[in-house]
Amino acid sequence: MSSTSTTGANEVPSDAIRAALIKRLRVSSAIAEEDIKEIGALPISVREFPAETAVVRDGERATDCCLIVDGFCARSKTIANGKRQILSLHIPGEIPDLMSLFLHVMDHDLSTLTPATLGFISHDNLQKLHRRSPSVAEMFWRDTLIDASMFREWIVNVGQRPAPARLVHVMIELRERLRLIGRLDGNSFEMPLTQEQIGEALGITAVHANRVIRQLRQEGVVELNRGRATVLDERKFQELADFDGRYLHQSPTL
């Protein structure tokens, strides 16, 4: 973690923090009781971050991996003219910078989208855990492979789908991931992106994003309002997304 991102720390690991990680890992991996104990013993430094705050920046050398306890984060790249591409969205229980354990210089930014509670696990402690417990190391390796699978789908989405389908695909992916950690509320779910951030995620302008959002509402597909998405017509939502969730590998058998 960069020294620019501290906002006060609590060095005492919390059951809730460990549970957030274990709950999400159970989605894609079979976890033995001894693995739970190993993960539960990790020292975690907890920090609170405001919205739209850098956690670690492109070019920095991270010394910790970041576990999202609560809130939403995004990974992004900014090019020379200042334009930003959001590469992925991240939810509680995920470690979006696990690659920094082996790729020592960050090649993108990790920042908060909302106020967030983040837990930092030192590279040293994670490396010791990997050497001590090959089964846990395999779980984290599988997690990085799933991350790569999601990147591939995002490339296809931005490169090949029209903007309305592009947005709905991002939304249905986020909904599926939130569903598995118990964060849905009927037919609505958190989608805490501004129009500008939606444009950055889809590779379109904020003006175009506004038109797409309005079109989806007028066609009775989905409505975005104050950081929440509400599905108005599930059949239209599914058809427009052209969504095949296999790439999320949300089962140990996939």
Description:
By secondary structure, the chain is an alpha+beta fold. Helix content is 41%, strand content 20%. It is built from eight helices and eleven strands. It has helices at 15-28, 33-40, 123-132, 134-160, 163-179, 195-202, 206-218, 234-241, and strands at residues 45-49, 54-56, 64-70, 73-78, 84-90, 109-112, 116-122, 184-185, 188-190, 222-225, 228-231. The chain has a four-stranded antiparallel sheet with strand order 2-6-4-5. The two termini are 32 Å apart. The model is unreliable at 1-13 (pLDDT under 50).
Please supply descriptive tags for the structure shown above.
single chain, 254 residues, four-stranded antiparallel beta sheet, disordered N terminus
Apparent shape: globular
How much of the polypeptide forms β-strand, as a percent range?
15-25%
Main sheet overview: 4 strands, antiparallel
Number of strands: 11
Mean residue pLDDT: 92
**Terminal CA distance:** 32 Å
Q: Enumerate the spans where pLDDT stays under 50 for 5 or more consecutive residues.
A: 1-13
Radius of gyration equals 18 Å
H/I helix tally: 8
**Helicity level:** 40-55%
Please trace the helix and strand order, writing H or E for each element.
Answer: HHEEEEEEEHHHEEHHEEH
Structural class: alpha+beta
The main sheet orders its strands as 2-6-4-5
Describe, in short, the structure shown:
The chain has 254 residues and is α+β, with helices and mostly antiparallel strands. It has helices spanning 15-28, 33-40, 123-132, 134-160, 163-179, 195-202, 206-218, 234-241, and strands spanning 45-49, 54-56, 64-70, 73-78, 84-90, 109-112, 116-122, 184-185, 188-190, 222-225, 228-231. The strands form three sheets. It has a four-stranded antiparallel sheet. A four-stranded antiparallel sheet has the order 8-9-11-10.
